[in-house]
Specification:
Two copies of one chain form a homodimer.
Chain A (H helix, E strand, L loop, with lengths): L1 E7 L1 H4 L7 H11 L3 E8 L3 H14 L2 E5 L10 H9 L3 E3 L1 H13 L13 E3 L3 E3 L8 E6 L2 E6 L3 H19 L6 E9 L4 H7 L1 H4 L5 E7 L2 E10 L2 H19 L3 E4 L4 H12 L3 E5 L5 H6 L9 E6 L3 H8 L3 H7 L4 H14 L4 E7 L14 E8 L2 E8 L4 H21 L5
Parallel strand pairs in A: 1-2, 1-3, 3-8, 13-14, 13-15
Antiparallel strand pairs in A: 4-5, 6-7, 7-8, 9-11, 9-12, 10-11, 15-16, 16-17
Helix pairs in contact in A: 2-6, 3-4, 10-15
């Protein structure tokens, strides 16, 4: 099955919107063993979009079109697909009912133009959109498939995962060669360091191995092409084991694992509560921890002690410590961690103080210098880090390092 | 001048690499008034890449090709362009010298295969690459241009900025029609509400007007095509004024303005300090405020009072208030704002308490219910909001609403 992804949207061709949808969909199709030959982006222009749809239907078996399903006159995808296939546009009552409900919840009537979103080329399998008003659709013409999806990733991705993925999975021949992928996630090593450590493994072809730099962590992607799922699993397991033997606990997870997800599971499992004291990250650690629904079970909250007064006032950091060692120091980090643990009555208190830049650095304390403190029942400790990059990078690396410390601490815990 | 951007690279078509180059180049070409009709991505496949190059030369005046200029057998762009145009590949001595120097600096000789990067289609204007070994090139065929660039953005972007941009700037006729763009940024209205308010303006064609939903805000994009810059400014000013007359202070800014940027400038201008007390946003407001370098000038910090104990302990919220009205209530929001303002000795104290979901909602207090409190020298006030969407959406909308309240408050201030 040969696929092609078409994005429509003038905003992409003005350089205002980055097309992340093609990237997302390609990754998913790769998992299914469906090869993607082309990505095309075209503006909301009738002639050009019609031409691209026609060309796609000629050269590919599967066409995924994102964008152009909305309520405005510029939204043309469904209409042009109908025209190309010689189909009528028909009203889908269920979609209309959902659009009415969407507006009713917001206390208003459906404006007339919004109803355009409930019309589809005849014979469409309509895919409900839980996060917006423009549903998706699947059409079949002989042995070719056309999939229409809304443009915004927050609407497109859930529809793809819920409806399109299982639909295609059923239609990919089971004996076809699939790309079996595993991602090994690594923290605390740069690309160069990782390359050096894995040098002899990187030459192996089965599975193939690629290093991907993902901002605050590194990913190792293993690919093994085979129609034999069991053999693939065996091969990938073998490669993962070889990597883990070299990298030890710098491997924190695989595939869908996230650092905050693992920390969250660990805290629940061990029955531990956590509180945070942040300076240069300004609340980012708290924000990341509370991305996880139900985080109130173990996360009590914390203090953003951006100013020295708050470090003293809320956390009890000694004036003397601040004067003698400075706000960005091992001692301040330790007192912050101890302070938040006691004040919040938490099992674990974690603290962050550093220089995120771009200003505020000196020879002695350069931009990227960060101290992280951890207070537990066993006492308090602080560690020094030197990160590099932009303000945003340094803050993200700091948050990831703080979470990683909690993860490592728990890996040595008794279950509570 | 009609342009088309072609990316080649199997890693993009495996979903492993996000194609940011097309986005970057499109933005730059838009600045120059060069319209981009298509983005195409194709793998490192001879037949398909040859076809795409041929198609591009037929339908566009300017072809920008990224990727496929490197040393491996898979790198085919230069060779296929030469083939399509009927040109020989010739050695560029300067490029060879630079490649030799690159390896000499790293203490090694140039491997034979690396020399491929010093060959170009005859007649190329070679563009040196200060950050890698694969140079770029510009070719002209009659009145069409083909630009070849390396794939990695860190190599491509400097070459584009240094060589390609000025090259094209000289060749865009000064009297050519440019796309003049202005973006008006709006907060507190849904797409539907905005569409209704602007219905009569949306039909106007000069400038054209498009609504873009940007998660926690709406953007109105105005485009006026003209070679006359002054006339364009006048037209865009007129349209902006008409929009502002309808929307009033729901328009918060234009173009490069951001909500947090404006709040930050306002706080500095009025000499006000700010402290935050966050519950359901878990630190996101603090995180956003501290994205701005130098934010310590006005942002003192705050409390993430995720648990009720911290609301009472750090902020002095009354146990009675929590029991009688609940943590998510007007009264709690008011006491939180008042508490953080006093404890942090700030001019402004802002508080957030709400239900971000997906769990924790009830009929009386549904998911998306949020109270925001603002304490100032004039007293304390809290407002109720009902947001919709995912946990992440609700949190982002909340932060944006909190920042917007500070912006509106300051717009009624005396300068300090």
């Amino acid at each position: 099955m040969k696929a092609e992804i078409i994005a429509t949207g003038t905003e992409i061709l003005l350089g205002q919107t980055l097309n992340t949808s093609a990237h997302y969909i390609t990754g998913k199709l790769s998992e299914l063993g469906i090869e993607v030959d082309y990505h095309t982006t075209v503006g909301d222009n009738k002639e050009r979009l019609r031409y691209i749809i026609g060309q796609g239907l000629e050269r590919s078996d599967l066409l995924v079109i994102t964008g152009g399903t909305g309520p405005t006159r510029d939204d043309l995808s469904k209409e042009l697909v109908a025209e190309t296939l010689g189909l009528e546009m028909v009203l889908d009552q269920d979609s209309l009912a959902r659009i009415e409900e969407f507006f009713a919840q917001r206390g208003s009537k459906v404006p007339e133009w919004e109803k355009k979103q409930a019309y589809f080329p005849q014979g469409s399998l309509v895919l409900p959109n839980p996060n917006g008003t423009a549903p998706g659709a699947i059409l079949q013409k002989e042995d070719k498939y056309i999939i229409l999806l809304p443009g915004p990733p927050s609407e497109m991705e859930p529809i793809f995962q819920e409806h399109v993925y299982p639909f295609l999975e059923k239609r990919v021949p089971t004996d076809s060669t699939r790309m079996n992928v595993r991602v090994i996630k690594v923290i605390g090593l740069s690309e160069g360091e990782l390359e050096e450590k894995l040098a002899h493994l990187l030459n192996s072809l089965e599975p193939s191995m690629t290093l991907l730099s993902k901002h605050s962590e590194m990913h190792i992607r293993l690919i093994f092409r085979s129609s034999d799922q069991e053999k693939a699993k065996e091969k990938l397991d073998g490669a993962e084991l070889a990597i883990r033997e070299i990298l030890g606990d710098m491997v924190y997870g695989t595939d869908e694992d996230t650092m905050v997800g693992l920390v969250s599971e660990g805290l629940k499992e061990y029955g531990l509560t956590l509180a945070t004291a942040e300076s240069c990250t300004g609340g980012m650690l708290g924000e990341v921890l509370t991305q996880v629904p139900g985080s109130s079970e173990y996360y009590l909250g914390g203090v953003i002690s951006y100013s020295n007064d708050l470090k003293a006032g809320f956390l009890g950091v000694q004036q003397e410590t601040l004067e003698k060692h400075g706000a960005v120091s091992k001692n301040t980090a330790m007192e912050m961690a101890k302070g938040i643990r006691e004040k919040a009555k938490a099992d674990l208190g974690i603290s962050i103080t550093g220089i995120a830049g771009p200003g505020g650095g000196s020879l002695e304390k350069p931009v990227g210098l960060v101290y992280i403190g951890l207070a537990t029942q066993r006492g308090v400790e602080a560690r020094k880090f030197q990160f590099h990059g932009s303000r945003d990078s340094i803050r993200q690396l700091t948050v990831q390092a703080a979470l990683d410390w909690i993860r490592r601490y728990m890996s040595k815990c008794e279950r509570g």
